[in-house]
Amino acid sequence: MTSAAIDVEKGQATTTNNEQSTIDSASQTASTAAVTAASEKLGRHDDDDAAPSSDGGNDEHDHEHDLRQTVTTRTTRSVAEALRALENFDTAPENARNWSNRTKWATVTTVALTAFVSTCGSTMAVPGIPYAMRDFGTTNEKVGILIAGCYVLGMGTGPFLFAPMSELYGRQPAYMLSQTLFVIFCMAASLAPNMPGLIILRFLCGCFGSVGPTLGVATCADMFIPQERGRPVSLYAIGPMMGPPLGSMFGYWIVFGGWRWLHWAITILGGVNWILLNFFARETFAPAIQKKFTYRVRNPPPADAGPLRRWLNDFKWMGAMVSADQAKTAFSSAFSRPPRLLFMNPVASISSVYYAYIFSILYLFVVALNKLFGRAPYNDPKLFSYLWPQATVGLSYTGMALGFFAAAMTAALYQDKIYKYMSKRNGDNGRPEYRLLLTQVGITLMPIGLFIFGWTAHAEVHWIAPMIGQVILSYGTMLAFNTLQAFLVDAFFPYSAAAVAGAVFVRSALACIISVFAPQMFSVMGWGWGGTFLGLVAATGIPLPTIMFKYGQRLRERFKFKG
After folding, report:
1. What is the rounded distance in angstroms from the CA atom of residue 360 to the CA atom of residue 477?
2. What is the rounded distance in angstroms from the CA atom of residue 1 to the CA atom of residue 448?
3. Which of 10, 483, 496, 512 has the fewest CB atoms below 10 angstroms from its CB?
4. What pTM value is reported for the model?
C-alpha cells in the first residue's frame, strides 16, 4: 500500500472518529451513570440475598434461596456487563454504523419510500383541482392552486417540530408519530366538506408528511461515514424527487374515479408505508440508541408480560432522554436550532436559498406542464398547448422522471469517488465542499434546460423537443439538489436534521409562492420568455458552487455552529 493511500485511510478514520466523538459526548455521561447505578443495584441485591433466613432448617427454603440468589446475581451481572459494553459504542453492534449492509439499506429504502409518499401526495391532488373547484363552487384559480400550495407550505412548517424532536428522542418516534397523523389527516381530506376545510387539511397533511423529506438524509448520515455517504444519500433522494412527477402521472389516471379518490390513494399509500416503518425502520440516532438500550436492560418487562405490555414498555425510555432539571435548556436549544442555523449561519443561509430555488422550479413545472400538454380543463387559452387527452397527459411527466433517475444514478456512482479523490489529492481528511463539484455541473445545466423548454414549446415544433429540455432541466435540478443536500449533512453533522429543516422551510415557502403565481407568469410572458426569465434567474447561481468551494471552509470555521 502506498503512503498516500495510508494517509487517506488515516484521514478517513480521523473524520469518522471526530463525528463519532461528537455523538458520544451527548450520552456518555448518561451511560456512565447507568453503569454506576447498575453496580450499586448489584451490590444491594447481594447484601439482601446474603441475609440469614428465619427458617434456616428448612431445606426446601434454602434451595429456593440459593436459586433466587443465583438468578439475581446472574441478572445484575449481565445488566452491568451490557451497560459497560455501551461505553465502547464505536464498536458496539447496536451502533447504526456497525449494522450489516442489508439492515442499513433496508432502512434507507424505507425512509426513501416515506419521502416518496409525502412528495407524491403534494402533486397527486393537482389533477383533481378543477373538479374540486367545480364541486365547491369556486372559480378563482389561485384558490384552487392552494390545494397543492398549502400542502407544500406545510412540508416546510413540520420540520421545525419534528427535526428537534428527532434530536431529543430519536428518529423513530418522529417517523412513527408524524406518519400516524399524516394518514389520519389524509383520510380527513378525502372527506372534506368545503374548499377552506380541504385547504386546511392539506396544510396539516403536508406538515405531518414532512418527516420523510427532512429526516431521510440525517438517517443516512447516522448509518454511513462521510466517505461512504454519497451513495446512500443519492439513492435516498430518488424518493422525494420522484414523488412529484409520479404523483402527477398517476393522478391523471386516478382522477377518473373522482377527485376524492386522489386523497384516498394518498391515505392508502401512507397506511402501507406506516406498516413498513414498523417492520423495517430502526432507530439510527446514536444518543437515542444508547438511552433506549440502557433503559431496556435496567427495566425489563415482567416475564409474564404480554406482547402489548412489552411494546408499551419500549416507549418508556423516552422519559429518560431529557432529565427534568435540564428539560427547559434542552428543549429551547433543540427547537431554536433550525432557525438559528438558517438565519445566523451564512453557509446554511446561502445553501438553503439556492436549494429552495432548485426545488421551487420543480413544483412550478409540475403545475405548469398540464397547461402545455393537456386540454380543458387544464390548458390555458392564452398559451399554446399540445392538447393531449387526460388519459395521456400524465405521460408528459416522463421526461422529468427520467432526468431525476439518471441524475440520481450519476450522483450515486461518482459522488463518493470524487470525495475520496479530492481528499487524496489535497492530503486532508475530506471536506463537505468536495460535494459541490457535482453541484456545479447540475446548476450549469439548469438554465440550458429552461431555455430549450421555453423556446421549443410551439406549434411548429414536435413535443419531443420541450420534453428534451425537460430532461436536461430535471437532470441538472436533481444533481444540484442531491449534492447540496449531502453538503448540508456533512457541514453540520450531527445537527444535519436541523440544517435540512431550515432548508426545507425556505424551499417549501418559495415553492408555495411560485406554484401559485408563476402559472400566471407564463400566461403573460408566454412559454419562450417565461422560460428565458427563469433561465436567467437560474444562471445567476452558476458561480455559487465555485465560491462556496473556495471560501466555504473559512466561513464554516468563522461561524462554527456548536448546537
Report:
1. 10
2. 44
3. 10
4. 0.77
